[in-house]
Amino acid sequence: MSDFSGLAERADCLVLPDPIYSCGKIVGYYHNFDRICSEAVNGTSAFTLLQAIKIFQSEGKEILSLGLSPLFGMEKGYDLAGPLQILSQLFYKYGEKIYPFKGNAGHKSKFCGKKKKVYVASNAGWFKTMIAAATACGLEV
Question: How far is CA 111 from CA 50, 78, 108, in A?
């Protein structure tokens, strides 16, 4: 795993990726966790992630997954029955107090990665299934 220790005396941003394995070998990372301090300048998180991407590329890693962007792109290519389509669009458009749907998707779109659809099947009922439906946004480095 990459070692970022000693890069700065004070950390304004922390990015902790989880390894992605294939056949017992680390082929990439999943961007699992990041935090920035309140004094950090605007753009610190994106800059730190870009620096991590450069390191992963230099190590020959193939993938950096930015994870899921729930409800992003639901209007494109989804044919949901009944109220699901309307509810998913309303949650995405007005649900920022519940979850930062647009902010999450907007942040990830800055990296111009490849988007991959994720399909969810569940016997938990239509509402819980609709909430769980998401579109993945992965960035291949």
Answer: 9, 24, 6
d(CA 1, CA 141): 16
Q: 141 to each of 4, 29, 60, 64, how far by Cα in Å?
A: 18, 10, 9, 6
Task: In whole angstroms, give the CA distance from residue 92 to residue 130.
Answer: 12
Q: Which residue has the tokens 């994870």?
A: 67
Give pLDDT tens digits for 67-111.
777 777 766 556 666 677 777 778 878 888 877 888 878 878 887
DSSP H or E stretch at residue 87? helix 84-94
Q: Is the pTM of this model over 0.90?
A: no
Rounded to the nearest angstrom, the gap between the alpha carbon of residue 29 and the centroid of all alpha carbons in its chain is: 12
Residue 49: closest CA among 69, 64, 28, 27: 64
Confidence band of 137 (pLDDT split at 50, 70, 90): very low
- Per-residue H/E/C for 25-77: EEEEEEEEEEEECCCCCCCHHHHHHHHHHHHHHHCCCCEEEEEEEECCCCCCC
